[in-house]
Write a structure and sequence with these properties.
2 domains, Arylsulfatase, C-terminal domain, five-stranded mixed sheet, alpha+beta, 25% helix, Alkaline Phosphatase, subunit A
Length: 411
C-alpha cells in the first residue's frame, strides 16, 4: 500500500526520528531541531519522560533492534540500549563524513551494543548485512521482533561504491556524473533493502511481518552552478529539506504485510510519523497510556483496508527546521509566515502581486503550492490560525535554537 499524503513531522533528521519513536510532536519529544556533535550547535535533547516504541513493544513480548543511524543523542542516558532497544548495531551520530571510514568530526560513533567498533566496508553494505544477520537470528525464536533499520544513505557525502556508479553510467550513457553518483547511492541502498526482504522470505518470516519504508525528510536543494549538495528532485512539489512546503515534509510511505495489507493499494489518508506508535500498539494489542503528551493516531484500519480515513485527528501540525509552523486540515494548508526556513531558496510573494503575511494552499487542486489563496480565503485562514494558536498555547511548539539541548552533544 502506498500512501500519497504521508508527512514527516519535521523536514530534518532528528526531530522526525524522535516523533516516529515517541509518538510526540518534535518539541514535545525535546527535539525541535537537529541533535549535533558539538553542544553549541546542538538543537535538542530527547526527553527522559518520552516512552519510545521499543518500551511499548516490550510489554507485548517483543525483542527490539536498531540497526544503522541513531541520531538521538550521544550521552549514555540516550543510548539506544538505555531507551528500550534490546540490540544495537550501528552509528550513534548524525551524518558520516565518509561512508568507508564512518567518522564524524574525526569521531568514531560505530557501536555494537555499547562497544566501539571499527568495521571495514561501505556503511550501506554494513547496515544491510547486519539487518540480515539479525533477521536470521530471530528465526525460530519464541518472542516476536521489531527491527528499526535506519540507513545514512542517501545523505551527503554522495559516495556510492564504484561498481554501482558503473552500473548507472552503463545503463544511461551521457548521464551527468553528479546525477549518476546519486542514482547509484540510492540504488545501492535499494539493493540492500532487497536483501533484507529476501532474508524475511528465506527465514519464512515474511508472512508474519509488517514492513514499512519511509524517509525522514525531503532532499536538499542543489545549485548546479555552485555544485552544492546533491542533485535531487521533489518532482512537482515545492521546497526541499528544511522547508515547511510539501517538498520538505511530503514523504514516501509504503507498507507491506502479505495477506493483511491490500497489495497494490493506494491511500489518500493524511498521516505522519507520530502515528506509528499508536498503530503498532493497536496491532500488538497494547493500550497507550493517557497523559503522555502523545499526538499519535492509530492508522491500522487504513493499513488493513478497512477504511479510507484516520479517525480522531482534527488537523496535522508540521514544524520546519526553524521557527515556521504549518497546519493541514483536509485539502487546506496554512503557512502563517513567508520564507522557507530551510535549504531551498525562498520564493517569496512579490508585493502588489498577491503578497501576504502568510500562505494558504488547496493541496488537492494545487499540490505544487503555486497559488497563494491567503487573501482570497480569510475565513479558512482564521480557522486554521486558531488551530495553530491553540497548538502553541498548549505548549506543544517550542522554537529551536542552537545550544538549546546541550546535554545531547558530545562536549
Amino acid at each position: 500500500m502506498r500512501f500519497e499524503n504521508f508527512y514527516a513531522n519535521c523536514p530534518v533528521c532528528s526531530p522526525t526520528r524522535a516523533s516516529l519513536l515517541s509518538g510526540r510532536y518534535p518539541a514535545m519529544a525535546g527535539v525541535p531541531g537537529v541533535i549535533r556533535t558539538h553542544a553549541a550547535n546542538n538543537w535538542g535533547y530527547l526527553r527522559q519522560d518520552a516512552k519510545l516504541l521499543p518500551v511499548l513493544l516490550k510489554k507485548a513480548g517483543y525483542h527490539s533492534a536498531l540497526v544503522g543511524k541513531w541520531h538521538l543523542g550521544l550521552k549514555e542516558e540516550n543510548h539506544p540500549l538505555s531507551r528500550g532497544f534490546d540490540f544495537f548495531h550501528g552509528f550513534l551520530g548524525d551524518m558520516m563524513d565518509d561512508y568507508y571510514n564512518h567518522r564524524r568530526h574525526g569521531n568514531n560513533y560505530m557501536r555494537k551494543g555499547r562497544e566501539a567498533i571499527d568495521p571495514k566496508g561501505h556503511a550501506t553494505n554494513l547496515f544491510s548485512d547486519w539487518a540480515v544477520d539479525y533477521i536470521r537470528s530471530r528465526k525460530g525464536k519464541k518472542e516476536p521482533f521489531c527491527l528499526y533499520l535506519a540507513y545514512n544513505a542517501p545523505h551527503t557525502p554522495i559516495q556510492p561504491p564504484k561498481e554501482w556508479i558503473e552500473k548507472v553510467t552503463k545503463r544511461e550513457p551521457g548521464i551527468n556524473n553528479k546525477r549518476a553518483k546519486l542514482v547509484a547511492l540510492i540504488e545501492h541502498m535499494d539493493h540492500g533493502i532487497g536483501k533484507v526482504l529476501e532474508a524475511l522470505d528465506k527465514t519464512a518470516q515474511a508472512e508474519n511481518t509488517l514492513v514499512i519504508f519511509t524517509s525522514d525528510n525531503g532532499p536538499v536543494w542543489y545549485d548546479a552552478d555552485e555544485e552544492k549538495y546533491g542533485h535531487r528532485s521533489t518532482g512537482h512539489f515545492r521546497g526541499m529539506k528544511g522547508d515547511t512546503w510539501e517538498g520538505g515534509h511530503r514523504m514516501p510511505f509504503i507498507a507491506r504485510w502479505p495477506g493483511r495489507v491490500p497489495a497494490g493499494a493506494v491511500s489518500e489518508a493524511t498521516i505522519c510519523h507520530t502515528d506509528m506508535l499508536a498503530t503498532f500498539a493497536a496491532i500488538v494489542g497494547e493500550k497507550l497510556a493517557s497523559g503522555d503528551g502523545l499526538d499519535s493516531f492509530d492508522i491500522s484500519s487504513v493499513l488493513l483496508g478497512r477504511g479510507p480515513k484516520v479517525s480522531g485527528r482534527e488537523a496535522l501540525v508540521l514544524q520546519s527546521s526553524g521557527r515556521v509552523l504549518s497546519v493541514r486540515q483536509g485539502d487546506w494548508k496554512l503557512i502563517p509566515q513567508l520564507g522557507s526556513g530551510g535549504f531551498s531558496k525562498p520564493r517569496r510573494e512579490k508585493p502588489g502581486a498577491g503578497g501576504a503575511v502568510g500562505q494558504l494552499y488547496n493541496l488537492r487542486e494545487d499540490p505544487a503550492e503555486t497559488k497563494n489563496l491567503y487573501r482570497e480565503k480569510p475565513k479558512i485562514v482564521e480557522e486554521l490560525t486558531e488551530l495553530l494558536d491553540r497548538f502553541r498555547s498548549e505548549g506543544r511548539s517550542r522554537p529551536a535554537s542552537p545550544g538549546s539541548g546541550r546535554p545531547g552533544g558530545d562536549e
